[in-house]
Specification:
The protein has 508 residues and is mainly alpha-helical. The chain has 19 helices and no strands.
């Protein structure tokens, strides 16, 4: 009886094991290891079992995802659309019964998954069409240039045509088109400037409203100078001419240069410092900037010497050293004494030490190879120039907002004011040119008159005898005689010199 009970208990235990639920193929009956089995067989059997378990759970997970997919689609279809409000279901037994009663109706009214997909695809197509239509409308006259950077390129002829089609001259669209045209005109003129056409470029710039576009002009000049530093003296001469008529533009450019130098000095950007200081140096030469700013910059650079700071200081001295020698000789001597101390301390590189020695040689030659202003660009009189006094420690505002278009409510009035200024400036230029031409013709007439007068004077000299009451000839004779006696070794040589020179003295 006990044997029967033990057999039944084993069967019950076997029936509850996980191997009982599997099929015969999936079931793996353990076998007792014998002497013939090896470790490789045991590892292989364990790997097969783990692989079968992974396949089983993978299939089971896939089946569960397939079961959940329709439910998710139904839930998406039941989500309320934008603008709609989901109705709340009150809690309680009655609500549960109503939901259970109406569940059949709602399931019948709900759209199928394929229907919802079609609706969403149609809605996406409608949105795409609306977006394309809006984009096409933006490519019109206003849309091309309403971005901050100016938008797509518009040829000048088309830009003028678009500007002519606008009837309201004070509208934002017309002002934006005029702003873009002004920016392109200023950039084109600045890029064409050189020593020979400086006067013509200045006259063409005065024809544009550079009071409204002073931010654009300052930015264009600084960018052109940074791109081609060898033409810095030309751009400085341009700023000097504009500064005589519009001092606020010259001050704006100088402020931005100082701010750029400060940024480059803090960030250790040697190229930015060299470019900005070269422009400032030529503005000092043109008397647009006061020499105090130049001395402050030099003292900052040589106070705590490094290889880069001394190199920048030497380059700055080469450009404006000639002007500083005439304006502030004591300040320039102080800078060179500091450079001499740095050279004796030998805390910098050999290359930079050689640059300081070259700077001393240039100073010894009197800056002969580095003049402050060349004769072709010396077109502004010193008394006509406005010199701006800025200090390095001042909190300067670069006014970057002037580079961006802004709507002007008094656009037409400001344009009329600048037209009056432009007429005055251009009339002065034309009168100066006419005066030069008249002066040239008058000079030729004056030369003829001078020749006639000289001929008459010569005739008068032949007729009249001039009596010298100052005894100049007598004093000259006594000086010559004294020098002759003192230079002779003995009396024979003295007599011989006096005898040879007697005729000349008597004739004198």
């Amino acid at each position: 009886m006990s044997k029967v009970r033990s057999v039944v208990a084993q069967e019950i235990k076997r029936s509850k094991s996980p191997y009982h639920d599997r099929t015969d193929k999936q079931r793996k009956r353990p076998r007792t290891p014998d002497a013939s089995s090896t470790d490789d067989d045991r590892h292989r059997s364990d790997g097969d079992r783990h692989r079968r378990d992974d396949d089983f759970y993978r299939q089971r997970g896939k089946r569960s995802r397939d079961d959940e997919r329709p439910r998710n689609q139904d839930s998406k279809s039941e989500m309320p659309r934008s603008g709609e409000r989901r109705s709340r279901v009150p809690r309680g037994d009655d609500s549960k019964s109503e939901v259970s009663r109406n569940s059949g109706k709602k399931s019948a009214e709900e759209p199928k998954p394929d229907q919802s997909k079609a609706e969403t695809s149609n809605q996406k197509e409608d949105d795409a069409e609306k977006f394309l239509a809006a984009k096409r409308s933006k490519t019109s006259a206003e849309g091309d240039i309403m971005t901050r950077t100016g938008g797509a390129y518009i040829p000048p002829a088309r830009l003028r045509m678009m500007q002519a089609q606008i009837t309201d001259k004070s509208s934002a669209q017309y002002q934006r088109i005029a702003w873009e045209a002004l920016k392109k005109s200023i950039n084109g003129l600045i890029n064409k400037i050189n020593v020979s056409n400086l006067v013509q470029i200045v006259q063409e710039l005065f024809q544009e409203n550079i009071v409204r576009g002073r931010g654009l002009l300052a930015r264009s000049v600084m960018q052109a100078q940074a791109a081609s530093p060898t033409f810095t003296h030309v751009y400085a001469a341009l700023v000097a001419v504009i500064n005589t008529k519009f001092p606020n533009i010259g001050e704006l450019i100088l402020k931005r240069l100082v701010v750029n130098f400060k940024k480059g000095f803090r960030r250790n950007e040697k190229a930015t410092c060299l470019s900005s200081l070269r422009f400032i140096a030529h503005l000092v030469n043109q008397f647009v900037c006061n020499e105090i700013l130049a001395l402050e910059i030099l003292m900052l650079l040589v106070d705590q010497p490094t290889d880069d700071s001394i190199e920048v200081a030497v380059g700055f001295l080469k450009e404006c050293g000639s002007a500083l020698k005439d304006l502030t000789p004591k300040g320039l001597n102080a800078i060179f004494e500091r450079l001499r101390v740095i050279l004796h301390e030998a805390v910098i590189d050999k290359r930079v030490q050689y640059m300081i020695e070259v700077m001393f040689a240039i100073r010894k030659d009197g800056f002969k190879d580095h003049p402050s202003v060349i004769s072709e660009l010396d077109i502004v009189q010193e008394e006509d120039q406005f010199t701006h006094l800025l200090e390095l420690e001042d909190d300067l505002n670069p006014e970057d907002a002037l580079n961006i278009f802004k709507f002007d409510a008094e656009y037409l009035e400001n344009e009329e004011k600048y037209k009056a200024i432009k007429k005055e400036l251009l009339d002065e230029g034309s009168s100066d040119e006419e005066g030069d031409e008249d002066g040239g013709s008058g000079a030729s007439d004056d030369d003829d008159d001078d020749d006639d007068e000289d001929g008459q004077k010569d005739e008068d000299k032949e007729k009249t005898v001039i009596i010298d009451s100052t005894e100049t000839n007598l004093v000259a004779f006594r000086r010559t005689l004294y020098l002759t006696i003192q230079s002779s070794l003995d009396f024979d040589e003295c007599a011989h010199k006096i005898e040879n020179g007697h005729e000349t003295w008597s004739g004198g």
